[in-house]
């Protein structure tokens, strides 16, 4: 089954609509991705070269107070965004390259709309881009060269449609990465390393950012799709038609108030315990 | 042997009698199908009881999804609609929609899943139940599959 997913080819003439963006805000991009998944029947590849405002983006189940140093993020005016896909927490900015592949199951026979077959397929797809630059693989569901992660990924699946998106770190700012707490659940290969030792900026491995973007777009034709350029207007029509939106900007003040409330609760519990003793 | 024992336990917790012959159960290697339930093409099961129904995801679905780390359920009193999302579950970095097989008002949710989503994996037909619904249209049940048809559906690869 794994081999079938990795080697899957679309039927001849299967179209993927390509939406190229540059410096597009990540909140709007995620909302568009969700709309393209839910409100169109088409296959899409969205690529965005950087987002203008540094942001922290959490997965659907992410708990901000456990994953982010909230007070530091607030002090630096870094907004928190909850996205509609699973997966972990990332810090993104102008040096992050985003891709999203949105697919109708019937367009890739052999790739069932479940998490593992989808990732087996995308690993093979992206191998055509990254494979010649190092020991590329999908390791415990992270895109890595060797034991260092260069790209986060996450997915959303609805009926017979799926979306797989990535945030590829061309570069990153160490102080922004430090806004993230060490997550409780970590892949075994991370071996407890701090973010800065675990993450690999792509500029250390790849020669040219523009070439990477072109090759990511080119991977679709290599994979057997017919690629048709699309415009933002097409995406915005989907946005207007979509009724289910799981992506939203989180209220920082509300999050900080929640932290304060938890601390008061802890102080109260400690006082009670002291009184009992 | 283990599959039959699991099926008996699951069926028992639903108040069902599990048919002893293994031909009543799924023949796919790992997926269990329980008698007495109805099944949707999106791999949810329904246990109808008068004008109400209990809904969850099947053993096939939980196996394909992988270990669940998060289950989001609707609020009691809200309306679910057949063919539309009523829940989101997370596994292996994926947020997957769970599609309602019936229409009606949510009367109860399995709140324990917020603390222990693994119940959906370990006991999908029993402690992993997700919602209870007061049915708006019992006729919708006729459009679901019986255990044999669902077994055939899973094995056909048409899913």
Automatic annotation (TrEMBL), chain A:
It holds the Pfam family LplA-B_cat. Residues 37-224 form the BPL/LPL catalytic domain. It comes from Chlorella vulgaris. The lineage of its organism: Eukaryota, Viridiplantae, Chlorophyta, core chlorophytes, Trebouxiophyceae. It comes from the Eukaryota. InterPro entries: aa-tRNA-synth_II/BPL/LPL (IPR045864), BPL_LPL_catalytic (IPR004143), Lipoate-ligase_2_inactive (IPR053264). Gene3D superfamilies: Bira Bifunctional Protein, Domain 2. This is BPL/LPL catalytic domain-containing protein.
Automatic annotation (TrEMBL), chain B:
The modification N6-lipoyllysine is found at residue 93. SUPFAM superfamilies: Single hybrid motif (SSF51230). Binds 1 lipoyl cofactor covalently. Residues 52-134 form the Lipoyl-binding domain. Its main location: mitochondrion. Its cofactor is (R)-lipoate. One of its GO terms (biological process) is glycine decarboxylation via glycine cleavage system. Keywords: Lipoyl, Mitochondrion, Transit peptide. NCBIfam families: gcvH, PRK01202.1. Belongs to the GcvH family. The glycine cleavage system is composed of four proteins: P, T, L and H. This is Glycine cleavage system H protein. It comes from Chlorella vulgaris (Green alga).
């Amino acid at each position: 089954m794994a081999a079938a997913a990795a080697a899957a080819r679309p039927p001849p003439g299967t179209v993927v609509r390509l939406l190229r963006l540059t410096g597009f805000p990540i909140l709007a991009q995620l909302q568009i991705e969700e709309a393209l998944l839910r409100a169109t029947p088409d296959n899409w590849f969205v690529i965005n070269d950087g987002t203008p405002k540094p942001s922290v983006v959490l997965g659907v189940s992410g708990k901000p107070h456990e994953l982010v140093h909230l007070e530091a993020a607030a002090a630096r005016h870094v907004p928190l965004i909850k996205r509609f896909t699973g997966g972990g927490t990332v810090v993104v900015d102008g040096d992050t390259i985003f891709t999203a592949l949105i697919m109708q199951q019937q367009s890739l026979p052999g790739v069932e709309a479940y998490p593992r077959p989808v990732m087996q397929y995308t690993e093979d797809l992206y191998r055509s881009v990254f494979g010649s630059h190092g020991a590329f693989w999908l390791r415990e569901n992270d895109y890595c060269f060797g034991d260092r992660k260069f790209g986060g990924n996450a997915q959303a699946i609805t009926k017979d449609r799926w979306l797989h998106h990535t945030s590829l770190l061309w570069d990153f700012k160490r102080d922004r990465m430090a806004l993230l707490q060490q997550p409780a659940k970590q892949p075994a290969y991370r071996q407890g390393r701090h973010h800065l030792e675990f993450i690999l900026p792509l500029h250390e491995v790849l020669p040219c950012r523009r070439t990477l973007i072109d090759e990511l777009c080119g991977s679709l034709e290599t994979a057997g799709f017919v690629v048709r350029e699309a415009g933002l207007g097409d995406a915005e029509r989907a946005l207007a038609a979509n009724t289910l939106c799981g992506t939203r900007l989180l209220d920082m003040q509300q999050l900080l108030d929640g932290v304060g409330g938890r601390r008061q609760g802890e102080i109260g519990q400690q006082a009670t315990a002291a009184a009992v003793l | 042997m283990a599959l039959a024992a699991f099926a008996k336990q699951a069926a028992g917790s639903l108040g069902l009698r599990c048919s002893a012959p293994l031909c009543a159960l799924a023949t796919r290697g790992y997926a269990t199908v329980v008698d007495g339930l109805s099944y949707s093409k999106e791999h949810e099961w329904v246990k109808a009881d008068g004008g109400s129904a209990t809904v969850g995801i099947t053993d096939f679905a939980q196996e394909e999804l992988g270990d669940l780390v998060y289950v989001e359920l609707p609020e009691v009193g809200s309306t679910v609609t057949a063919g539309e999302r009523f829940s989101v579950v997370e596994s292996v970095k994926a947020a997957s929609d769970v599609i309602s097989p019936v229409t009606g008002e949510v009367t109860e949710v399995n709140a324990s899943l917020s603390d222990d989503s693994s119940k959906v994996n370990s006991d999908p037909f029993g402690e992993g139940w997700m919602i209870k619904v007061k049915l708006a249209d019992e006729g919708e049940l006729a459009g679901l599959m019986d255990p044999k048809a669902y077994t055939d559906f899973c094995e056909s690869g048409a899913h």
